[in-house]
Amino acid sequence: MQEEKIRKTIEKWVKLEKEAKELRRSMADWVFINSQPPRIREALKYYIETGDIRRSCTLAGKSIEEFRELLRKARIPVVV
Amino acid sequence: MLREFAIADTCFLIDWARFRRRDIIFKVFRTVFIPESVIREVVSENTISWISKWLAKRGLSLYTESADELEEARLLVVRTRRIPQIIPVDVPEALCLVVGRKYGYVVLTENRGAIMATEVIEELSNVKVWRSLELLVEAVKSGVLKVDCDNPEKVFREYMEDTLHIFPRNDYSKAVAEVVRICKKRR
Amino acid sequence: MFSKRLKKILSENEEAKRIRASLADWVFINSQPPRIREALKYYIETGDMYVASRIANLTVEEFNEYRIRARIPNVA
Questions:
Q1: Residue from the list C38, C46, C51 with its beta carbon closest to the beta carbon of B48
Q2: pLDDT number for residue A1
Q3: Above 70 in pLDDT, residue A20?
């Protein structure tokens, strides 16, 4: 019963995440992203792929709020 | 109706603080708690000055986590990493969930892992988790946020514009439908 | 009786706030980085050093040093 509940929840979130990733990818300013230093660039690309802000900001070597500001500059939306 | 208490995490606060109508939160909740671990993560002048202003006015209140709560949060972090395919949470979000469960506070978060945890982990199933989307709908419902019934999407668009935050399509449609329903009721 | 006492406390708080604000070195305060500045302003408003230190991301003792440098009295 619990396993079934987890399975359904995961299915729902996989679908949501697919929609979110597509939005992040299509709205992103790739000129801005590709002009960034390697660490920032890779962190932004990682965020587009995963939507995981905490890992992304660690990769970028930035605080979460600084990274959130970077996402705005790169026109990458948070989709939640 | 003014709800009692909420507890907010970093992901929620750093976006909400940019919203042009951010102060309506204090007409929805009597007090919004901010854990110390969350306040440590805030860096921008805009956010910190809004936080400190409302700490002084008591709309916001600092939450000092106990060692037990922190430990419970760490255990929750580990637990979410043991369930395959579930998005794991980190300590600040986990702490909000722990406190939300303990005291019945609404947890304000934009963290998908935190939302998912309440859907998957039995002990968290009673925790009420709101994103900015749910908060905006509640603000409209309770009348603290005036809605333009000729343009029911306006309040959500303002938020999305100010923060570059997009709501998932289905959830967004439901929220707009709820606003339309409220408008019809008021006419 | 209680409301008389409460009125007295509130009035003392207001007086303390007024004293902190009037004696503070606002040039120093406004020249500080955002977190320190907001924390000092919060302290002037409330007299709450612990929360002010959290806003500043400093220990209470470190914040107290800033309070002294900003010439904000600790009004007991």
A1: C38
A2: 65
A3: yes
Shortest Cα distance from B187 to chain A (angstroms)?
Answer: 32
Whether the predicted model's global pTM rises above the 0.90 cut: yes
- Report percent pLDDT > 90 for chain A: 81
- Structure tokens, A74: 């790169």
Q: What is the ipTM of this complex?
A: 0.89
Cα–Cα dist B35/B90, whole Å: 14
Instruction: Give me the pLDDT at residue B1, please.
Output: 61
- Separation of first and last alpha carbons in chain C: 23
Please answer yes or no on whether B55 and C34 come within 8 Å at the CB atom: no
Query: Going by C-beta distance under 8 Å and a sequence separation of 6 or more, which residues neighbour residue B20?
Result: B158, B162
* Cα→Cα distances B20→A67, B131, B151, B155, Å: 21, 17, 18, 10
- In three-state form (DSSP H/G/I as H, E/B as E, the rest C), the secondary structure along chain C is CHHHHHHHHHHHHHHHHHHHHHHCCHHHHHCCCHHHHHHHHHHHHHCCHHHHHHHHCCCHHHHHHHHHHCCCCCCC
Q: How confident is the model at residue B104 (pLDDT cuts 50, 70, 90)?
A: very high
Distance (Å, whole) CA A34 – CA A24: 15
> In the CATH scheme, what is the code of domain B3-130?
3.40.50.1010
B36/C contact by beta carbon, under 8 A? yes
For residues B64 and B36, what is the distance between their CA atoms, to the nearest angstrom?
A: 6
State the pLDDT confidence band at C75, using cuts at 50, 70 and 90.
confident
Q: Which H helix or E strand runs over A37?
A: none
Sign of the dihedral through C-alpha B144, B168, A45, B11: positive
Q: Domain residues of chain B, as ranges?
A: 3-130, 133-186
